[in-house]
């Protein structure tokens, strides 16, 4: 029996409650196939690249208080030799594995926000990462902070008749969007195998693109899927969202395929990993993070109409034998970020790109008995790019006044977010952060 549209959507398993968070609406296939060419992001438009370090990066061995005797006393053999670090200022230095970032510091393009965290810290990976990605420390929010930014833009588009910078008219002249006004699935992209909660709004979501290449089905199968995903006035709201989610596959593939067609081949064994790749590898070309940022660089240079990109590197949960693992991961981070920054500095659109690097928490001040460190609290947030004003922002947490062995938070992470929302994405921070609290804006932009 032929597969009907209704049977297909039911069989897909996404027509239940989960479809409420499904795809972000859809433009016509003809309009989206040439998105980068037909409605390129204007040069000078702010772009945010979010780099997540999963596992809890050791901030004290990233931005090192190398002149503080309490640091060497607490860290013992985990403290790098003083001649090997890259001195910055105020008795702080970058880790030996970060020479590229040290160069950006000298150029005034690296900002270090110190002591960043959230109220009443939690040592759980899951809870802490949920807080960072939702920007909701005191409530169990189901939407990410960039997702809520997408919601706000979609609502604005619905009020004005379509996404800024591009038409939503389909081939017959009607609106091609499916939900939240003219929601555009290209506005926020996660480069990697999964879509992080960061990009999930209440009504709108971003899209995910794997680094191993991305092509939508073609031929007869592609034609059949187009028919099954086509909007139908008879659909229930959930079925309509499921169809929009499937159509987004073709949306993203059509827009990015020309951009990524010349991407270099990478070792298939590292595609989609979040663990930093081969444990025996050095920093090299940045590993999987380097592959992700290479894709971001190509998309930005080509003018893909994306304002936020999410990339990630994992493996930072260094409870044992931290020295080698952390050095390797920081080497990959350094190589990937440095190459990305250099590529952006060479293109007009790159002049408006800001990159933020964060982790869910830092590590405890004292090393443990296994040559590692345990879950902590505050840590540094790094920002780099042509728009960035380099230097230190926020107070350095003291090592002699700890909170039960943890660093005290001196900068609320929402101050970083508020600054990025307003000065990169051009959106009132309160619309997204939804809090009555006032978060001081920081002068790194």
Automatic annotation (TrEMBL):
It holds the Pfam family DUF1501. Residues 161-181, 274-288 have a biased composition (Gly residues). Residues 161-185, 266-288 are annotated as: Disordered. It comes from the Bacteria. InterPro entries: DUF1501, TAT_signal. PANTHER family: BLL7424 PROTEIN (PTHR43737), DUF1501 DOMAIN-CONTAINING PROTEIN (PTHR43737:SF1). This is Twin-arginine translocation pathway signal protein. It comes from Parafrankia soli.
């Amino acid at each position: 029996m032929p597969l009907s549209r209704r049977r297909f959507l039911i069989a897909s398993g996404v027509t239940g409650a989960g479809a409420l968070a499904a795809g972000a609406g859809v433009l016509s296939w003809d309009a989206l196939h040439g998105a980068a060419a037909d409605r390129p992001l204007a040069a000078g438009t702010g772009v945010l690249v979010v780099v997540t370090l999963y596992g809890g990066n050791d901030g004290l061995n990233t931005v090192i208080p190398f002149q503080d005797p309490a640091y060497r006393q607490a860290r013992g053999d985990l403290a790098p030799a003083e001649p090997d670090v890259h001195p910055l200022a105020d008795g702080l230095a970058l880790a030996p594995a970060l020479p590229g970032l040290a160069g950006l510091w000298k150029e005034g393009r690296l900002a270090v926000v110190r002591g960043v965290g959230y109220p009443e810290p939690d040592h759980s990976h899951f809870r802490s990462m949920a807080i960072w990605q939702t920007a909701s420390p005191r409530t169990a929010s189901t939407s990410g902070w960039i997702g809520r930014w997408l919601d706000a833009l979609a609502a604005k588009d619905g009020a004005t008749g379509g996404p800024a910078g591009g038409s939503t008219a389909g081939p017959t002249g009607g609106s091609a969007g499916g939900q939240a006004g003219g929601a555009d699935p290209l506005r926020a992209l996660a480069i990697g195998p999964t879509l992080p909660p960061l990009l999930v709004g209440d009504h709108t979501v971003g899209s995910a693109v794997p680094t191993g290449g991305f092509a939508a089905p073609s031929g007869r199968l592609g034609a059949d899927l187009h028919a099954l995903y086509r909007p139908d006035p008879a659909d229930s709201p959930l079925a309509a969202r499921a169809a929009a989610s499937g159509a987004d596959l073709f949306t993203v593939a059509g827009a990015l395929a020309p951009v990524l067609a010349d991407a270099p081949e990478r070792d298939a064994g590292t595609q989609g990993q979040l663990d930093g790749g081969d444990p025996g590898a050095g920093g090299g070309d940045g590993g999987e993070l380097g592959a992700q940022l290479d894709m971001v660089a190509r998309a930005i240079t080509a003018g893909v109409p994306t304002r936020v990109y999410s990339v990630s590197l994992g493996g930072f949960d260094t409870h044992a034998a931290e020295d080698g693992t952390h050095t390797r991961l920081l080497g990959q981070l350094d190589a990937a970020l440095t190459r990305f920054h250099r590529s952006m500095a060479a293109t007009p659109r790159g002049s408006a790109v800001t990159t933020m690097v964060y982790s869910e928490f830092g590590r405890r001040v004292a090393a443990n008995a296994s040559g590692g460190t345990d879950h902590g609290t505050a840590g540094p947030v790094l920002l780099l790019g042509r728009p960035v004003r380099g230097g230190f922002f926020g107070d350095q947490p003291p090592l002699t006044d700890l909170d039960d062995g943890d660093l005290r938070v001196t900068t609320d992470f929402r101050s970083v977010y508020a600054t990025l929302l307003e000065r990169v994405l051009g959106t009132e921070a309160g619309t997204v952060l939804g809090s009555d609290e006032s978060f001081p804006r920081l002068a790194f932009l």
